């Protein structure tokens, strides 16, 4: 009976980390698409700040991928230190997104 709760919680955590990986892949694709789309427009590269949003999107996607990878490894190995790290960084990332959204409003 006790194994059912552990197995289901592991399954949910792995599924959530797979969602992190999917989000990371989508963000990296969007950032790369911006770079590829504006590759032919040389006048955009005259301005230094044109492609900074694309770089930020790729950076956030990479961070999400790393968090998801650590989360999957920590879930499978049942590492309390790894799970605490993922929990902290997920909370920190959520706060950064909320702050950026509040600055836009």
From TrEMBL:
Membrane-spanning residues: 12-36, 48-70
Location of this chain's protein in the cell: Membrane
Keyword Transmembrane helix tagged: yes
InterPro entries (UniProt xref): Tetraspanin/Peripherin, Tetraspanin_CS
Main localization (coarse): membrane
Top-level taxon of origin: Eukaryota
Keywords, sorted A to Z: Membrane, Transmembrane, Transmembrane helix
PROSITE patterns: TM4_1
Membrane topology classification: Multi-pass membrane protein
Protein family membership: Belongs to the tetraspanin (TM4SF) family.
Protein name, entry field: Tetraspanin-3
Phylogenetic lineage: Eukaryota, Metazoa, Chordata, Craniata, Vertebrata
Gene it is expressed from: TSPAN3_2
